[in-house]
Fold this protein.
Amino acid sequence: MTEVISLVYSNTACAIIAISIIVILSFMFDPKYFKYFMALAFTCTVLLSFCIFYYIGSYKSTEEDADLKADITKQDDSDYILNIGIEWKRKIQIFGFNGNEDDLIVRYDPKRFQIISSDSNYDSKKLGETFLKLPDEFKYSKIKGNELEVKFDVKDGEAYSEKILLKNIKPGGAIQVFFIHDYKIPLDARTYWEKSHTIEFSI
């Protein structure tokens, strides 16, 4: 809802500026042209509003627009580093009101891993619970009762990376990494998709 409010404020500000300029110009010319300037101001306001809402409402995006990175490197005999990140192939920001609520999520079995993130500002979910409610066909929607999630917020379609220390690793474990792109477009429409990657440990 915040992005919609911001859009309304911006749209109003642009309209006020346009009308103010036209009103000032109207006083610089013969008064008989005043009504024409007012008609022009109204027309400009309507066109500006239409262009902004049409451009934002026509936003489209697919999973091909970004690359999800997920790999591990060995730290010592018992610990590993999980390197995850998202890189965009194109800029998705629209007038600064992209309304993104993107998430980078790591899902794992706490009985087989202990994770320690370099970023302490992440959220965690209890066993068998998910952060997001997505359609059943999403890979993210398939969670087991013994799994735990941690979530990192990704802002405004920007590249993001994170290093996570994996400790107390037991054989047969697997880590799933998900990137969920969620674009909240005004007028109650939305565009979202997922990228996922699974890393299995056979040690």
In short: The chain has two domains: 2-57, 63-200. The longest strand covers residues 174-185. The CA atoms of residues 3 and 97 lie 6 Å apart.
